[in-house]
Design a protein that fits this description.
The structure is a single chain. The chain is α/β, with parallel strands linked by helices. The protein has two domains: about 170 residues, NAD(P)-binding Rossmann-like Domain (Rossmann fold), CATH 3.40.50; about 120 residues, Orthogonal Bundle (N-(1-d-carboxylethyl)-l-norvaline Dehydrogenase, domain 2). Helices cover about 45% and strands about 20% of the residues. It contains twelve helices and ten strands. Strands 1, 2, 3, 4, 5, 6, 7, 8, 9 and 10 form a ten-stranded mixed β-sheet that branches. Helix 3 runs parallel beside helix 4, helix 6 crosses helix 9 and helix 11 packs across helix 12. It is globular and about 50 Å long.
């Protein structure tokens, strides 16, 4: 059976890798030793609120080294954006020709970076819609959703999408996947830095009118940059997406907030940072986005 390898088996990689393994696929998880040890001893536990139960999944191959990608036909690339270039370079001489690499990451720049560093691969931009946390080694908590948007369409990508669907993963193949990623960047930039600086949930942020106004201004700034990049995203669409997250994920703190609280490096350079860099290239001003980028960067430094 053709091999599936998860590079960066955190919450996202473990969740989707787990669904594939449960469906009978041969799945290798590459991740941190503590997490892999727990999976090896007790299986991967997925405690799902939508499912109303905990699943325990066994049968993985486990590896702490990137060498495991040498036989991969399909790679779920789930590392933080801060590690994209480093991990891609480590894969350059290992990854087979025509291997499909799903860039299942935040931000809009990762697919281009991966394709440049892995010219032998078929790199696929993926917009991931799922609410997860890695609660403990070997334990993923699933709070909602679990769908992917991939693209652009091609016969081999349709085959890959069908393989994922057979594992119960909702997959949409779209020629507008980069627009989806930019709309997701609108939401991430609107919420992540404010949540990180305040350590507040999305619901708490929206309960304060002044903070909600700040989030709306962030949305306006990112939408303007997205439009300058050529993506058909209106302010109405961007704000509707932000409001929907505030309602459906009111109790969540952003991944940036969680990373900052844990003393980890955040992905802020690939969220607010990307928006600020692209804005400058287009001669646009994004003062709130820029200010929050600098604040999170300063807080990162204070924790080191």
């Amino acid at each position: 059976m053709a091999k599936i390898v998860v590079v960066g088996a955190g919450a996202v990689g473990s969740f989707f890798g787990g669904l594939l393994a449960k469906a009978g696929e041969s799945v290798t998880l590459i991740g941190r030793a503590e997490h892999l040890k727990a999976i090896g001893e007790n299986g991967l536990r997925i405690d799902s609120k939508p499912w109303g139960r905990e699943e325990r999944i066994h049968g993985f191959e486990l590896s702490e080294t990137i060498q495991a990608v040498a036989q991969a036909e399909l790679v779920l690339f789930c590392v933080k954006s801060t590690q994209t270039a480093t991990m891609a370079k480590a894969m350059q001489d290992l990854l087979p020709a025509n291997a499909v690499v799903l860039s299942m990451q935040n931000g809009v720049e990762n697919p281009e970076t991966l394709q440049r560093l892995l010219p032998q691969a078929r790199v696929v931009p993926v917009a991931v819609y799922v609410a997860l946390s890695l609660a403990a080694p070997g334990l993923v908590r699933h709070f909602g959703r679990g769908e992917l948007v991939v693209g652009p369409s091609s016969p081999w990508l349709e085959t890959t999408a069908e393989r994922l669907r057979k594992a119960g993963i909702g997959v949409t193949v779209s020629n507008q996947v980069m627009r989806d990623l930019w709309l997701k960047l609108v939401v991430n930039t609107a919420f992540n830095a404010v949540s990180a600086v305040t350590q507040k949930t999305y619901g708490e942020m929206f309960a304060e009118p002044m903070v909600q106004a700040t989030v709306q201004q962030l949305t306006r700034e990112v939408v303007a940059v997205a439009q300058a990049e050529g993506y058909d995203i209106s302010m109405e669409q961007g704000w509707a997406a932000v409001q929907a997250i505030a309602q459906t994920m009111a109790g969540q703190r952003s991944s940036t907030a969680q990373d900052l609280a844990a003393g980890k490096r955040t992905e802020i350079d690939f969220l607010n940072g990307t928006v600020a860099r692209r804005a400058e290239a287009h001669g646009l001003s994004v003062p709130v986005t820029q200010a929050l980028w600098s604040m999170v960067r300063l807080m990162e430094g204070a924790g080191n």
